[in-house]
Design goal:
heterodimer, A: mainly alpha, two-stranded antiparallel sheet, 2 strands, flat, B: mainly alpha, globular
């Protein structure tokens, strides 16, 4: 049962990945719709970032994580390099937690 | 990012190294957790290789350990459904050869798509996809092995890694948000997802973020129907407005953002959720002018 469920999850995930890639050729997409694809990807990623930043389980993620993400986002907006953004976000959250602020 | 155009490969490699380091650490925590749950040693290895989707792996091992394999599969698949639209978006980047499509599809993750979106030039985009994809696959699996071997190594939260990943995603999508329509759709979508997360099963809220696009795409002649919900307007801003309805109440989650989010980085709206607060709250009048100042896009 364990192996079966992992196989189904793996195959299902792969099928979803591959079908998007393959469908792209089959679908006759208007220019307008084509322009929406990167927009859709950006929207999904923004939604992932938003939920990952703010929510843990079904509640608010606390202070440290959103604060870290906020610092990272501010730096990103100021065009700081990617590495700096990621490190600053992690460091902020880690230091806040170290200071007892969850 | 700015530097990436000047010294392309070095900057890309440096970014890849940063994401790889973080991925190793999170992969290690995945391996350690799977073992701590009492699952057989092969489980984390097989999952990291064959599923290769972090969020769904964490979700699935928890449910498997709880003796609920059916829920593990369903929840994992729902969470991974976003890869289908991702695939549509990056299909042209992966390449036309079958080998590339078959292998490239497996390497598709949130981070790869985000890194790819950041690039404008098709050749660079392609190189980025494959470099980041391979880097993440290797580091995720190496991390998993490390976690299984070393056991309960560290808590990713203690290292702040839970903040690192969303921040990294935000940094990667910021360039896309310079486009105003994308920005409006993405911010509203993020707000919708955040609002729905407490009430919907994992995976669905993020997919619901796409409703903003539907509003944008609806043919104009249908205006009368949509008029009701208030979606219609002009092409660009209407998107924002359509959703406003949803996020409007966002004042609700506002509190959450309220603490750290909105305050400081609020203006960076770019971040998506954050901006979400202030931007959407504007509700009325935010359409044209005001938004301009608040959001960088």
């Amino acid at each position: 049962m364990l192996i079966a469920s992992i196989v189904v999850l793996a195959v299902g995930t792969y099928v979803m990945r591959l079908s998007g890639v393959l469908l792209r050729d089959r679908l006759e997409l208007s220019d307008r719709l084509q322009r929406l694809l990167p927009m859709a990807a950006a929207t999904l990623l923004a939604a992932l970032a938003g939920t990952a930043a703010l929510i843990e389980g079904s509640g608010f993620a606390g202070v440290a994580r959103p604060a870290g993400v906020a610092v990272g986002a501010l730096l990103a907006w100021r065009r700081a390099p990617f590495v700096v953004v990621v490190l600053a976000a992690a460091l902020t959250a880690a230091l806040l937690r170290l200071a007892g602020i969850a | 990012m700015r530097t990436s155009s000047r010294t392309p490969d070095r900057a890309l490699l440096r970014d890849a190294a940063a994401i790889a380091a973080a991925t190793v650490a999170v992969g290690a925590s995945f391996g350690a957790i799977a073992i701590a749950y009492g699952l057989p040693t092969w489980v984390p290895f097989v999952m990291s290789t064959a599923v290769f989707a972090g969020g769904s792996q964490f979700l699935a091992v928890g449910l498997l350990a709880a003796g609920n394999p059916l829920a593990a599969v369903l929840a994992g698949l729902l969470l991974n459904a976003r890869h289908l639209p991702f695939g549509l978006a990056v299909a042209g980047t992966i390449g036309a050869r079958w080998r590339d499509r078959l292998v490239g599809s497996h390497l598709m993750t949130d981070e790869v798509v985000a890194f790819t979106l950041r690039e404008q030039d098709p050749a660079r985009r392609r190189r980025t996809y494959w470099l980041i994809g391979a880097t993440l696959f290797i580091s995720w699996n190496a991390g998993t092995a490390l976690g299984v071997l070393l056991g309960g190594t560290g808590d990713p939260a203690a290292l702040g890694l839970d903040a690192a990943f969303p921040a990294g995603l935000i940094a990667l999508i910021l360039p896309s948000l310079r486009d105003r329509a994308t920005c409006a759709v993405a911010l509203s979508g993020a707000a919708v997802a955040v609002l729905l997360t407490p009430v919907l099963p994992a995976g669905l809220p993020v997919l619901c973020a796409l409703v903003g696009l539907v509003a944008l795409f609806r043919p104009r002649r249908r205006a009368p129907d949509d008029g009701g919900p208030g979606h219609r307007g002009g092409p660009g801003p209407e998107v924002g407005s359509g959703h406003k309805g949803g996020p409007g109440p966002e004042g609700g989650p506002g509190p959450e953002g309220g603490s750290a989010q909105e305050g400081g980085p609020g203006p960076d709206g770019g971040s998506g959720h954050k901006g979400g607060g202030p931007v959407h709250e504007g509700g009325p009048g935010q359409e044209g002018g005001p938004r301009k100042e608040e959001v960088p896009c």
